[in-house]
Amino acid sequence: MAKEKHPVTQAVRALRAAGIAFTPHSYDYVSGGGTAQVAAALGVDEHLVVKTLIMEDADARPLVVLMHGDRQVATQHLARAIGSKRVRPCAPEIAERHSGYRVGGTSPFGTRHPMPVYCERGILELPQIYINGGKRGFIIAVETRAALQLLQAQPLDLAVAG
């Protein structure tokens, strides 16, 4: 059996189990490089690179937020939409505990614990997204609708200029 060219992460396993096709892309991970680095490495618009954020509500319940790489989350809008007093990013060690992934390599697919997923509504307009595949330096290109359907992502208006 030939060695695969990409890592087999929990995200890859989840996508395969669901029968969702994806294209793997590896790049040289740089701490703090974020979606701008991914976009430059892959030669795509940063708006197409979707970041996976692990956040928590006022009761410390975790949730996943998917956002365009060139935008930020309007946490007050999100809190209102989910009926919470506030929403904030989890501390890295807490995010890693919830997701099972290291920060910088967090994928919304195959997380350690099930969490509700919210996505910026504008992501639905993209035919394909580039999103973390579950490891630093590993991005997958996947058809947007299939990915969001698998995640049961709830679209909301959450973006503010990055």
Automatic annotation (TrEMBL):
Coiled coil: none annotated. Its EC number is 4.2.-.-. The keyword Lipid biosynthesis does not apply. It is an enzyme of class 4 (lyase). GO terms for biological process: translation. Residues 36-145 form the YbaK/aminoacyl-tRNA synthetase-associated domain. It comes from the Bacteria. InterPro entries: Prolyl-tRNA_editing_YbaK/EbsC, YbaK/aa-tRNA-synt-asso_dom_sf, YbaK/aa-tRNA-synth-assoc-dom. Keywords: Lyase, Protein biosynthesis. One of its GO terms (molecular function) is aminoacyl-tRNA deacylase activity. SUPFAM superfamilies: YbaK/ProRS associated domain (SSF55826). Belongs to the prolyl-tRNA editing family. YbaK/EbsC subfamily. This is Cys-tRNA(Pro)/Cys-tRNA(Cys) deacylase. It comes from Marichromatium purpuratum 984.
